[in-house]
Design a protein that fits this description.
Elements lengths: L12 E2 L6 H15 L5 E8 L2 E8 H6 L12 E4 L4 E4 L6 H12 L4
Antiparallel strand pairs: 1-5, 2-3, 3-4, 4-5
């Protein structure tokens, strides 16, 4: 993966500090509603230290397992609980690669 993945990325939104689970979930829900035309979503949070990963899929697919109702390209959303910034990751690499790239972004330049 390109190590500069997040270098030029702007956050999709920034939460007020301190970040709470409720505020993060609400912000992710609002963001997803804006890009999926209000489609009902099932959202799951998986913390990784100070990074919270939000995974999502259409509720229709979860209920029925009908592939025609599934989302494609639904890249997890990363929220940094220290900065409040949220970024869309990607689907081409394992999520660990995106987390590592984000952590490298935080390292001071030498």
């Amino acid at each position: 993966m390109n190590q500069m993945f997040y270098a030029d990325c702007e956050p999709i939104f920034t939460l007020t500090l301190p970040v709470t689970e409720e505020a993060a979930y609400e912000a992710v829900s609002e963001y997803l509603a804006s890009i999926t035309y209000g489609m009902e979503m099932v959202i799951h949070n998986k913390p990784s230290g100070n990074l919270w990963m939000y995974y999502y899929q259409s509720a229709g697919y979860i209920r029925t397992q009908d592939i025609s109702q599934a989302l494609a390209g639904n890249a997890p959303i990363l929220i940094d609980t220290i900065t409040g910034e949220a970024f869309v990751t990607g689907t081409a690499e394992p999520i660990e690669e995106y987390i590592a790239a984000y952590r490298r972004r935080q390292e001071p330049e030498q």
